[in-house]
UniProtKB/TrEMBL annotation:
Species annotation: Scleropages formosus
GO terms under biological process: Rab protein signal transduction
Protein name: Zgc:101559
Region (Disordered): 210-233
A GO cellular component entry from the record: endomembrane system
GO-annotated molecular function: GTP binding; GTPase activity
Entries under Pfam families matching the protein: Ras
NCBIfam families: small_GTP
Keyword GTP-binding attached: yes
Keywords tagged on the record: GTP-binding, Lipoprotein, Membrane, Nucleotide-binding, Prenylation
Family of this protein: Belongs to the small GTPase superfamily. Rab family.
CDD domains per UniProt: Rab33B_Rab33A (cd04115)
Membrane topology value: Lipid-anchor
Length: 233
């Protein structure tokens, strides 16, 4: 969703209209902050903007518009006593709003979050295409990828059973999370998803995340990551 800085108290740090900035320094150490670029990918309307807004702004965005190109948001988090900056690229799901931007999305990316909507089976079915696009853009297999099912607050309208999504996640060896950008009770879970990635990136560790059953705790375990995505470039 295209969102201007200051709207609704939410910080979109910069977007396609604004200039890039110098890398910031850590206030405490004076050293350059570690910045990790994380892109959020998936069909239009699955809730990519709302998820990134929830993480970076702490609230549910009530009336999002379709993202055009990309919106950037960022949040600093402390991992093992060190501050790292997560730069979240909220990408457009609609083809017409993304086609000229695709290469920029994937360039120098540190992690990829694939999002589907648990109330719309087609958004999970199209996941292999998004994963394939990521591979085509030469994102190295070692770059962590996770699968996120959003809109879990709409249980009565659920079309995607956890078991089905888990099978897909397993076939790519991605961790699976299910959550809701809307449900305030899921705020900490949304944070945990991004923080888990941050931990993984900060520590340069392969990390496998397991969510064995719906609504259960996410477990972290160090395991060797395997990805079927091989760069053919
Ligand atoms: N019930 C519910 N609705 C949600 C949730 N997340 C997003 N929505 C709604 O889903 C619609 C699409 O949300 P967006 O965040 O704009 O979706 P997007 O994936 O960024 O869409 P594009 O910008 O077109 O790619 C909006 O009407 C949101 O209010 C959620 O967790 N639960």
């Amino acid at each position: 969703m295209a969102h201007e800085p200051g709207d609704d108290g939410f910080v979109t740090v910069y977007n396609r209209k604004t200039a890039s900035r110098e890398p910031p320094l850590d206030d405490d150490t004076g050293l350059q902050l570690q910045i990790f670029k994380i892109i959020v990918i998936g069909d239009s309307n699955v809730g990519k903007t709302c998820l990134t807004y929830r993480f970076c702004g702490g609230k549910f965005l009530k009336n999002p518009e379709a993202t055009i190109g990309v919106d950037f948001r960022e949040r600093s988090v402390v991992i093992d006593g060190e501050t790292v900056k997560l730069q979240i690229w909220d990408t457009a799901g609609q083809e017409r709003f993304r086609k000229s931007m695709v290469e920029h999305y994937y360039r120098n990316v540190h992690a990829v979050i694939f999002v589907y909507d648990v109330t719309k089976l087609s958004t999970l079915e199209s996941m292999p295409e998004w994963i394939e696009e990521c591979a085509r853009q030469c994102v190295p297999p070692a770059v962590p990828r996770i699968l996120v099912g959003n809109k879990c607050d709409l249980q009565a309208r659920r079309e995607v059973p956890t078991s089905l999504a888990q099978r897909m996640a397993d076939s790519y060896n991605f961790p699976l999370f299910e959550t809701s950008a809307k449900d305030p009770g899921e705020k900490e879970h949304v944070d945990a998803i991004f923080l888990t990635l941050a931990y993984r990136l900060k520590n340069h560790k392969p990390l496998r995340l397991k969510q064995p059953s719906e609504g259960s705790t996410v477990h972290l375990a160090d395991e060797q990551e395997r990805s079927p995505n091989h760069c053919t470039c």
